[in-house]
Amino acid sequence: MAKGDHLYVSRGTYFHHGIDCGDGTVIHYREGESITRSAEAFFALGERISVKPYTDSDSPEVVVERAASRLGERDYHIVFNNCEHFAAWCKTGKHRSQQVENVAAATAIGGALLGGIFVAPAIAAAGIYGASKYLEQAKSTDDPVLIRSSLESAMAQLAESRQEEAAAVEQIQQEMESWVKTAKEAINRDREDLARAALERKYPLTKQLEQRQQQLAEITNLESQIRSQLALSEG
Fold first, then answer.
1. DSSP E strands, 132-171
2. pTM score, two decimals?
């Protein structure tokens, strides 16, 4: 283990993440509480500490500086702002959680984390949350270099989220069209029972589509705000 490493330990049903400060302490998001700096032993709680590998990350100094900049934050959320989001952001500047993405994919738009149709947009929502953090960072400083860097990072985060959402919208629309086609064919064959079943399969997709479209609208709104801030920073 070394300064700036992304550390993680098992907590039984999930993994807890943090950043190695290089002096025997770890900055991490204590579950349900705040971002704090603790001794490695407290972070590990008797479990073996592992290091998450990265093919591309920022320097150890930048990683630890990012971690320290959020000490005391009390904005924990299991889906939008968890300990892995924090550690990944410190390493790369991107607000992501592989645990959330894995659960969302495994449940196939199920309900393991938040219940119902809201799980699927959780990945994009995390991206939106991350972009909002960058926007807040830009508004809280007078340093023009940091302002522009934060705004550009936010735009990159949103572009990635928009791409994911657009692909999901297209997939949902195609599946909806498929069930409508199936219902029409069933009616033509005098099988109202099959037509009804097909339309029942279409209904939850309609709700999922609405949720995705709301996410896209939020992304568009944030992009507009950031463009305005970028314009001001250039003025």
1. none
2. 0.53
